[in-house]
Design a protein that fits this description.
It is a single chain. With 255 residues, the chain is of the alpha/beta class. Helix content is 30%, strand content 23%. The protein is built from seven helices and twelve strands. The strands form two sheets. The protein has a six-stranded parallel beta sheet with strand order 3-2-1-4-5-12, sandwiched between helices. Helix 3 links the parallel strand 4 and strand 5. Helix 5 packs across helix 6. The radius of gyration is 20 Å and the shape is elongated. The mean pLDDT is 93.
Amino acid sequence: MGFDSVVARLLLLGGTREAVELARLLAGDPTIKTTYSLAGRTRQPVSVPVGVRTGGFGGAEGLESYLRETGTGLVVDATHPYADVISAHAAAACERTAVPRLVLHRPPWTRQSGDRWIEVPDAASAAVALPGLGKRALLTVGSQELAPYIKVEGVAFVVRAVEPPPIALDGTRFEVVLDRGPFDYDAERSLLESRGIDVVVSKNSGGTAAKAKLEAARALGLPVVMIARPPPPSGERVETVAAARAWVEAHVRKR
């Protein structure tokens, strides 16, 4: 494979399992030079067989400069559904540079029969709701957004995250479990039962990697405080890796 075979340079904004899968699918295509971009919050990200860029761009203006300077001709935004800031920056930068952009946005989970969801708009609302729902909560909101729960009274927490929290937590009230999905039903039910969990707090991330906790909570009759997603990014969107790959390949053929 020679450098001259490259037809398009693609910036893949990652951080999700779907982004990793797409990067792996595109890695063998000699016509596409893919750069996988990560914010840099995770110390040990999942490896991908393409070039990796770590760190921010410096807002929409910085991303615009990056696209121009690197000759990037396509952008796929496969960031987490709650990464609304980088998605907004990508939308603005691509509009200014006329670079085609696709959002790979997995669908949210939906309430099933037997679910006891308490849907709230944000983390602050989730923290307010907790004292009336349980005494021991499983927090699955990531390691970066724990501050609203520190002052919640009468509730102890099991925090599950990929990385250690960046803030100090009271060890008598917070137990940290470091783990990375996907998680299966049996393991999730065992976690809930062994830790005495009586309420679950989750973002509505969608996908399959963390869905089993909802199935286990449903089976045990536990309430789930479900934090709503921000509005989806503007622009063309697909929900599957296969559709995103087809979009990329179609744009490459046009060149």
